[in-house]
# Entry
Amino acid sequence: MANLNSSASKYPQSAPEPTQIKEKKSFAPAILITIAITYLSLVLLIPAANVFYEAFHKGLTPLIDAFKREDLWVAIKLTAGLAAIALPLNTIFGLSAAWAIARNKFPGKALLLSIIDLPFSISPVVAGLMIVLLYGRLGWFGSWLEANDIKIIFAFPGMLMATIFVSMPFIAREVIPVLDEMGTEQEEAARTLGANDWQIFWKVVVPNIRWGLLYGLVLTNARAMGEFGAVSVVSGNIAAKTQSLPLFVEESYKNYENEVAYSAAVLLALLAVVTLVLKEILERKTHNPNERE
Amino acid sequence: MVTTTPLPDRKRQSNPVLKFLGKIPWTWVITFVYLAFLLILPIIAMIVKASQEPFEKFWATATSPIALSSYEVTFVTAFAAAAINGIFGTLIAWVIVRYNFWGKRFVEAVVDLPFALPTAVAGLTLATMYSNKGFIGAYFAPFGIKIAFSRIGVFIAMTFISLPFIVRTVQPVLKELEKEIEEAAWSLGASQFQTFIQVILPPLTPSILTGVALGFSRAVGEYGSTVIIASNTPFKDLITPVLIFQRLEQYDYVGATVIGVVMLAISFASLLAINLLQAWSKRYG
# Structure
């Protein structure tokens, strides 16, 4: 309001009455907020809430029955296993790439960043197809793998590659801006005092990037556990064998076992809720310098 | 302190190539080996596989009627979904940046839901809600409007997954817009509408378009939610990713690869468009 008054005093003849502006301002926000919340509810919130409704509205019995099934437990373990291996590997890659990109100037930096972003824009089905073309029976390494009795497609290693592919960029993407913002002074100071690369990394860099790194980990985990397209292309979708939790959801829905589908879906929806809560907390810590310790 | 810094001052070794390789930091080695094996090699494998096809055959497969109809369904529907979100996503970003209201933090978190909720779950819940017996679909069924297992269902799934891209791209740009300019426009007698069209919208346009492009490219590639909500009938609501999947299931690797390469080309094109749009939007900063 202070700025408005100062502008108004400069141009008194063309300035509308202050009350007029106040009136305009009091109606528009309420309408816009209502539209925004209605749209968000229709498009995102109601569908998400529906998962919990469908899972719980008949009581806990269908849920308990579903969790007695062996194939659901196989799916849960498989999904946890995929994330447990993809997460550390993508962390090592993400940190290396972020460090290399943020701390060096070189020609083609923008190009390298775009390459790292590729998994975001490539369709998961195409990603799965690529892995099949490399390791499938008729693929480049197919005959060699067959001769050595190694199974990648329709087995865990292929699913792992698909998972790594789709969740690859998150950590580098979250850590690079934090490294940029942090600057190099602290690292240079540590180096001057005689610290080696490892000491600088663990004692200077990691404490600074920890929130960004955790944020990247949360996103990587959500994507790794939830990936459907890429994993379904390479897995062969064999029940109780190569069926991750999202594949299990689809399969039971297709078999008209809605209650089973929603029992599995509610686990993934809980994962989403935890992810969003952690995301909110970490986003504030990463991107709001005022709230950083 | 600076003068006493022990600067690395090693003498040149005899073999420059070995020395060069030995000096590459391990971070670079990890980055390149990882990218080469998990990203570049698969892309090359697919392009090589497709290029082994004679061009006429490649063209015939890529432009077969079923493929063309799948592109039409995919791209037109994805564009419609991204465009609708371009309007409402900008509105949501505006509301989040400019107003304070009860439950704002919750609204902020809900925007990211599609990033966190696995697509299979999104497809499942949308298919249930919008089926003829679902609590929303049931209202449309008497009018003969089928939502789930039709193109409208694909549109709804694509709207779900592409919304956060627009909000999250517009939001930071909107935050940096100075309110003073708008207030100056108002005080000069401009109406709210005029202010919006002539003062706020121009610097926001590149980021809205970037968001729409991001949402579009995500919607085009989407598989999980769309395969569940669509009936996947050729010439009706069959989308391109599902067509690739069906080709693979029939062991038609060539057909899958050719259509896959078309999709890959679209991905590259949209990535290029997004980068150009972002460069354009930086000129406003």
Remarks:
- Chain B touches chain A through 92 residues (CB under 8 Å).
- The domain at 55-284 of chain B is CATH 1.10.3720.10 (MetI-like fold).
- Residues 65-98 of chain B form the longest helix (34 residues).
- Residues 1-12 of chain B have pLDDT under 50 and may be disordered.
